[in-house]
Amino acid sequence: MEGRAVAAFFPCWPAVCGANLVEGSANSRMIPVATDGGIVDSTAKDDRSAESPSGRVSHGVPFRAASNTRPAVVPVGAASRGAEDGGDEAASARSGPEARITTSLPALTPPRQPIEEAWAALSPIPWPHGAGLRRRLAGGPSTHPGLAAVHPYDVLRTRALQAMTDVGWSRIGITQSSPGPASAATALNLALAAARRPDQRVALVDLDIEHQAVLDLVGQTLPAPDGPTRGCKARLRPNLAVISFVAPAGAGSETLLSSQFKNHVGDLLDDLEPDLVVVHVPPILVGDAGIAAIELVDTVLIAVDGTQDTAATVRGAERLIATRRPVLGVFLYDAEG
């Protein structure tokens, strides 16, 4: 059955670094493989780590922008807007000598909203009704819930959170070796599983900014950007925020590497103060967008699609990720598809 997740989580951190097995079913091309080295021992001190304002560990990710110039943030489904009134006057003002003086001054930061108000202000994303969309979703309203099994993601949630809590991590990236639905569906369903705890605030950030796979899973789209990037901040459940961006075709990696973009993501998360951040990371072995995106997380989980991934691609993904971040484990998605 398509979209089936197998309740299998193989931790690569911290004790199984040299003996992690990835198993496949009779219908998949996955074969048993022992990972051989390259996994970062997360118990060792990481000189790149820095304390965030909330006291959680963040591997060198800046939380505040040096400049207050940010990409536009619009509600889900909003149409692209043209230039605001007065744009020509603003452009001419920037060209004068006074501009050199005023732009050297720090911009004022508006006061932050209380957390409850910030969450209440998020636009709601409607839960999809069609079976075609719900087949990959686990959980949701009782009237028309997702058709995927809930149990595997509850197990994944509990085991991942236990490992992360032990070392003070709060940001987990979900990726896969090659393009496919496994990573986006795993990220979304893991976030939904975490949000089933009513005392937890969860933020799901989609950094596959050239495809917006998470929004696509719930039948939503973002309009084309009228600048470097466009974004939305909405909520799928009362305690589950979804943050997504869209960049011009071919500009995904450059955007993810931008200090301005990293600071913008940090500011959005600071406003919401989530207990857990689940980040959908682009495929790690295709281009460099995935490599750029993992700089924004503390650890990475690899989603494996048994219908297309092989032992070699999983090993390659694991080795590449481990050069920058600890690999938390491997989750088998659709292994019997």
Outline the fold blueprint.
Blueprint: E1 5-11, E2 49-51, E3 57-59, E4 72-73, H1 87-95, H2 97-102, H3 115-120, E5 123-124, H4 131-134, H5 151-167, E6 171-175, H6 182-195, E7 202-206, H7 213-217, E8 230-237, E9 240-246, H8 252-257, H9 259-272, E10 276-280, H10 289-293, E11 299-305, H11 311-322, E12 327-333
Parallel strand pairs: 4-8, 5-8, 6-10, 6-11, 7-9, 7-10, 11-12
Antiparallel strand pairs: 1-12, 2-3, 8-9
Helix pairs in contact: 5-6
- Tally of individual domains: 1
**Gap between N and C termini:** 5 Å
How much of the sequence is in beta strands?
15-25%
**Mean model confidence by pLDDT:** 74
Structural class, from secondary structure content? alpha/beta
- CATH architecture verdict: 3-Layer(aba) Sandwich
Q: H/E order of the elements?
A: EEEEHHHEHHEHEHEEHHEHEHE
CATH hierarchy, class: Alpha Beta
- Unreliably modeled segments: 13-87, 89-106
Major sheet = 10 strands, mixed
- Helix fraction bin: 25-40%
Q: In DSSP terms, counting alpha (H) and pi (I) runs of 4 or more, how many helices? A: 11
Radius of gyration: 20 Å
**CATH homologous group name:** P-loop containing nucleotide triphosphate hydrolases
User: Could you say which overall geometry the principal axes of the C-alpha atoms support?
Assistant: globular
In total, the number of strands is 12
